[in-house]
Amino acid sequence: MAQSLQSLHTFALNNQCQHLVEIKNIEDLKKQPFLSPFCLLGEGSNTVFLSDFSGTVIKMATQGINITQRSEDYLIAVAAGENWHQLVCYLLDENIPGLENLALIPGTVGAAPVQNIGAYGVEIASFIEAVEYYDIASKTIKQLNAQQCQFGYRDSIFKHRLKNKAVITCVYLAIPKKWQGVLSYGPLQQLKAITPRAIFEHVIQTRQSKLPDPSTLPNAGSFFKNPIIDNTTLQQLLSRFKDLPHYKYNETHHKIAAGWLIDNAGLKGYKVAGIEVHQQQALVLINKGNSLGRDLTAMIKHIQIVIMQRFGVALEHEVRLIDSHGECHLNMEYQHEGP
Ligand code: FAD
Ligand code: EPU
Fold this sequence. Notes:
Elements (H helix, E strand, L loop, with lengths): L2 E2 L11 E8 L2 H6 L6 E4 L5 E3 L3 E8 L4 E5 L3 E7 L4 H10 L24 E2 L2 E2 L4 E8 L4 E6 L20 E11 L19 H15 L8 E4 L5 E3 H10 L5 E3 L4 E4 L1 H7 L6 E2 L2 E3 L6 E4 L5 H19 L8 E3 L4 E5 L1 E4 L3
Parallel strand pairs: 2-5, 3-5, 4-20
Antiparallel strand pairs: 1-2, 6-7, 7-12, 8-9, 10-11, 10-12, 13-19, 14-16, 15-16, 17-18, 18-19, 20-21, 21-22
This protein binds flavin-adenine dinucleotide (FAD) and uridine-diphosphate-2(N-acetylglucosaminyl) butyric acid.
Flavin-adenine dinucleotide binds next to strand 3, strand 8, strand 12 and strand 13.
């Protein structure tokens, strides 16, 4: 039976899917035929359904947290359907700090390794001991260690070789007993007392000042990735735009701030129907209602074209876009991957 997807993704476009299945345990997964097309979903905070989806949405709702104490660290086994921020709060209350820089990131624990969530100088990759998944083809449970997950900036094997082949069932985090706060992100350096709780609160305060709460103003967080460009291109850009924020990525490349590019191009407040470039953070698109997938598509293309014309830089959307048959990529030229 058709189901509304509006409350199942935080951008809240008013579309439907043919079927919705909620997975509460591994047996539920084993019963799934995984007929194409299907779409795995957590809390939908990094997914936008551009149109009605012609297949089954499989929503992960498994629960459970198990803590094992080891000599140097705690091993935390967390079911995929647990809420990420609740986990951060729970561990802090249990006196197991470490994840505080990643506070208030929406979504499930199972989706967190998929794009290697990151914020304020920390990525989940540095805490992952292993990721357990249900292998759809063999109907068995398998595991990858952190290296095998091939984590990168907003990237992992689950967006490539294991896409639509693996359902993450459990994430194993190793949290060192010896806490070391990460203060590399500029605003955190102003903290007077350096405690896990102080970082947690500062991160929450900073996020709330820039990022709209999806429950009151639908959005999907940063819409585009921060582009990674080579050092020569960076020098050329800096000669024209000396304030362009940039961060070292590796010896040959730098990351530049997509939010600054969009802001500097004068696009804050730009609207297509009810979709708008957010005034407090230009990297975020908000949906004020009465908007369609094609309005969002037009908005994405407009931003990509303006940024390409002004800076010669290609913006790639971070958000996963789903059309009627599955995932699609709007990277300058529309591409649908096919079922
Ligand atoms: P969904 O959107 O439901 O799914 C995301 C992708 O993962 C989809 O492709 C889906 O198919 C796949 N997936 C989901 N669950 C599974 C599973 N169990 N097995 C296999 N594949 C699965 N991200 C950051 O990194 N840093 C931030 O600071 C940040 N801030 C945000 C702020 C706001 C206001 C919002 C709305 C989003 C933000 N995000 C951020 C993005 C988002 O929170 C993360 O990507 C999060 O991990 C998504 O979780 P989800 O459960 O909502 O995923
Ligand atoms: N900036 C502007 N104008 C804007 C927005 C940003 O000039 O409208 C400038 C800021 O002043 C700053 C720079 O751009 O100098 C970077 O901005 P910010 O610190 O807000 O971070 P971001 O690069 O926009 C990234 C992540 C966020 C993460 C924050 C904090 C990506 C795509 N986004 O945003 O992740 O929370 O850093 O670490 O990497 C997400 O992935 O959904 C997300 C919200």
